């Protein structure tokens, strides 16, 4: 008898996930900056930029993150992420809801998305997940801000459009690898002459146990729009699966330091400080705070 569960899974792969795998294809020559907001503690936003994470790591996971970067002019770079996902056995995966706010120079972006992730067991401790999310991008431009070159036309200050993300994750008890694409459809918002450009994400982490109480976890993240690329490497030290500190380096020549506490293994509080770009003349240091509820 044909395994209908596996057939359904590979249909998801072939019909939805193909854009995710085309990392080196579809170059764009009209883009001069990445559009997706950057998070220092990016793993707390995993289910947003890779919907395959919905319900994969926790039975229930809800996080709220605020990111603020100082600047030398009257320009702002602020982001807020609110993510909730739950594992639902009857759906063989998880569902999630995501709200993203990003204020960058003259633009205010808001995204509201719903996600679904399909999980397939490959072994006792190995799961392969494929996910997709879809929603609305609401963009507002502030024509009172003096714009850099190659930015959207502020003649019409509001617009809405459809957006979709997709991704896959291989999860084991120690190693996690994921690739994903956001803004997959690149649906233009004609009212403001703006096109959300496809972005690609790749994330990997591995947990090294040191004795019974300590764990070291190196992490890496790649973000690309097929023109600009940002790479971040992070090393976390975790004590008793509760207290964690870490340091990271981003390819834009920025360092970050972070720490947090997973209280009772259920409630997360964390803070990160990221140094200014080495050659930045506008934006300075950034601060990020995360609060979360994580139930396994």
Count every helix, treating DSSP H or I runs of 4 or more residues as helices.
3
Q: Whole-number radius of gyration?
A: 19 Å
Shape: globular
Strand proportion = over 45%
- How far the N terminus sits from the C terminus, by CA atoms, comes to 35 Å
Helix amount, in percent?
Answer: under 10%
List the secondary-structure elements in sequence, H or E.
HHHEEEEEEEEEEEEEEE
CATH class: Mainly Beta
* CATH architecture grouping: Beta Barrel
What is the fold named in CATH at topology level?
A: Porin
SS-based class = mainly beta
Average pLDDT score: 83
If strands are numbered along the chain, what order do they take across the biggest sheet?
A: 1-2-3-4-5-6-7-8-10-11-12-13-14-15
Domains (count)? 1
* CATH superfamily placement: monomeric porin ompg
Q: How many beta-strand runs? A: 15
């Amino acid at each position: 008898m044909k395994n209908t569960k596996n057939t359904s899974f590979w249909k998801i792969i072939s019909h939805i996930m193909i854009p995710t795998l085309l990392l080196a294809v579809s170059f764009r020559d009209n883009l001069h900056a990445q559009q997706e907001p950057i998070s220092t503690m990016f793993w707390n936003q995993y289910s947003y930029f890779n919907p395959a994470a919905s319900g994969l790591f926790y039975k229930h996971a809800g996080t709220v993150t605020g990111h603020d970067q100082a600047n030398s002019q009257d320009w702002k770079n602020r982001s807020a992420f609110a993510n909730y996902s739950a594992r639902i056995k009857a759906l063989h995966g998880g569902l999630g809801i995501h709200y993203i706010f990003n204020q960058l120079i003259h633009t205010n972006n808001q995204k509201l998305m719903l996600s679904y992730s399909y999980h397939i067991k490959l072994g006792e401790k190995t799961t392969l997940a494929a996910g997709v999310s879809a929603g609305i991008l609401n963009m507002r431009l502030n024509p009172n801000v003096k714009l850099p070159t190659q930015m959207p036309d502020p003649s019409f200050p509001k617009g809405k459009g459809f957006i979709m993300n997709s991704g896959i994750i291989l999860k084991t008890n120690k190693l996690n690898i994921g690739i994903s694409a956001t803004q997959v459809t690149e649906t233009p918002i004609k009212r403001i002459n703006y096109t959300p450009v496809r972005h690609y994400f790749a994330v990997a982490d591995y947990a090294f146990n040191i004795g019974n109480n300590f764990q070291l976890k190196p992490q890496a993240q790649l973000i690309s729009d097929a023109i600009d690329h940002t790479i971040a490497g992070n090393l976390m030290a975790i004590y008793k699966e509760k207290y964690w500190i870490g340091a990271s380096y981003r390819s834009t020549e920025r360092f970050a330091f972070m720490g947090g506490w997973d209280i009772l293994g259920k409630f997360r509080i964390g803070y990160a400080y990221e140094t200014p770009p080495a050659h930045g003349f506008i934006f300075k240091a950034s601060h990020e705070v995360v609060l979360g509820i994580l139930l396994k």
